[in-house]
Amino acid sequence: MFERLHPAAPTEKQKMLRGELYQAKDAELDAERIWCQAQLLRLNSTDHSAERTALLRVLLGSFGAGSEVRSTFACDYGYNIHMGQGVFLNFNCVLLDVMPIHIGDGTQIGPAVQIYAADHPRDHATRLSGLENGRPVTVGRNCWIGGGAILLPGVTVGDDVIIGAGSVVTKDVPAGATVAGNPARILRSK
């Protein structure tokens, strides 16, 4: 009965996964990041073989058939990354996955693309306290993201979108649009 009246406080991981403010310097999260980094060291030292695909299937939340991730690849946890079928990530991509990152079937991502689900409070005192948060990022099917593009926390990219190289995507992109620039602006709509 006492537990019903006073439920256990959520863990830092539970808060992170709900998009709430959380302490990243937490023993459970530290252990998961260390495990992820060990897997990435193995992954980034293998060729594009069956071993590499097997490692990606262990590391990521889901990894669709025919998908490919070239080295070097970096992420925080791995389990929050979900790639559909036939997804391609070129060299040196970084996905900060404190919240889910979904990449749809057939999407092609150029070199040095960065996708951030990790965020930080805007208030300096809260930020100095070590609290962080995140917002999920979703990329639709059959998108093409040019090299060096950055997708910020909370962004949703519709199906069949083209994002120009070097663009910084700060807000949602509707299906079929072509965007470019910093911040990315719609150049062409479906």
UniProtKB/TrEMBL annotation:
Residues 13-65 form the Maltose/galactoside acetyltransferase domain. Keywords: Acyltransferase, Repeat, Transferase. InterPro entries: Hexapep (IPR001451), Hexapep_transf_CS (IPR018357), Hexapeptide_acetyltransf (IPR051159), Mac_dom (IPR024688), Trimer_LpxA-like_sf (IPR011004). Gene3D superfamilies: Hexapeptide repeat proteins. GO terms for cellular component: cytosol. CDD domains: LbH_MAT_GAT (cd03357). SMART domains: Mac. GO terms for molecular function: acetyltransferase activity; O-acyltransferase activity. Pfam families: Hexapep, Mac. Acetyltransferase implicated in the O-acetylation of Nod factors. Belongs to the transferase hexapeptide repeat family. This is Nodulation protein L.
